[in-house]
Write a structure and sequence with these properties.
The chain has 259 residues and is α+β, with helices and mostly antiparallel strands. The chain contains eight helices and eleven strands. The strands form two sheets. The protein has a seven-stranded mixed β-sheet with strand order 1-2-3-4-5-7-6, with helices on one face. A four-stranded mixed β-sheet has the order 9-8-10-11.
């Protein structure tokens, strides 16, 4: 059954309904630090043009969402002035396979055209915590750059404006964090709080010196993040360990080769 045959509504999250509707993630944990950090971050971003659209199946649950923002304020490490940058596009559970991802992407593309933007940008990954490239390529995006370890810069461009670009100094960015474990964080994703605590607990158990570096603005993030993901990262002895949540067994596998 196609998305046009489904009974669903699109909910636009704004300052007036944020506390009621939430923002899809961590909906059952509204008192958790990660949720409150994201809520406060989101309130500040809404005035910068950030938008969240959620798919709600009638008589059911919210099954997907898209979050995007003008490139000048993007919390991804990409130079994309004049574009919209998608932070997240996620469809879960029984919502998959119904065309919701394409529908949400079309909403963003239509919005970009209505705003007179050059196009839409997505930082995708072959790994986890970010959408993969397939949906975007099927909807007219092109892959214009790659960055280690598995990031892909995807663009749907409407005119002949300069293409968005990744930085090229990843090794230098990572080296600046020095020895020990550095946990780079922001409040953009509510899961980051748990990811930070997990990393610090592991470091304490293994007697690894650890610190947390927080990016408080998009400008700071774009200038200093050790990966295209931007909002979270683990850097060990000047090298990117991961840009996503790690379980203890994952830490063991990745950490020991770098010690």
């Amino acid at each position: 059954m196609s998305v046009m045959e489904q009974k669903f509504t699109i909910i636009t999250v704004d300052a007036g309904n944020l506390d009621q509707e939430g923002f899809f993630c961590y909906m059952s944990k509204r008192k958790a630090p990660g949720y409150t950090q994201k809520r406060d971050w989101l309130k500040a971003r809404l005035v910068e043009g950030l938008k969240i659209k959620m798919v709600h199946e009638l008589g059911g649950r919210t099954v997907g969402f898209i979050e995007y923002i003008p490139g000048e304020f993007a919390w991804r490490t990409v130079n994309a002035p004049g574009y919209l940058v998608i932070h997240c596009l996620w469809v879960v559970g029984k919502g998959k396979g119904k065309g919701y991802g394409t529908h949400l992407l079309k909403i963003c593309l239509d919005d970009a055209r209505a705003q007179g933007k050059h196009g839409v940008v997505m930082v995708a990954s072959d790994g986890v915590w970010l959408a993969k490239k397939d949906l975007f390529l099927k909807n007219g995006f092109e892959e214009v750059e790659q960055a280690p370890p598995s990031f892909r810069l995807l663009v749907s461009r409407f005119d002949d404006a300069p293409l968005p670009a990744f930085p090229t100094d990843w090794e230098a960015r990572q080296a600046r964090f020095g020895e020990g474990l550095t946990v780079v964080r922001t409040p953009q994703c509510p899961y980051i709080e748990d990811a930070v605590n997990s990393a610090l607990e592991y470091a304490a158990e293994k007697n690894i010196a650890a610190r947390v570096v927080s990016f408080d603005t998009a400008e700071d993030l774009q200038a200093n993040s050790p990966s295209p993901y931007g909002v979270f990262g683990l850097v060990l002895n000047g090298k990117l360990l991961a840009y996503h949540y790690l379980l203890p067994k994952d830490f063991d596998k990745l950490v020991f080769p770098l010690l």
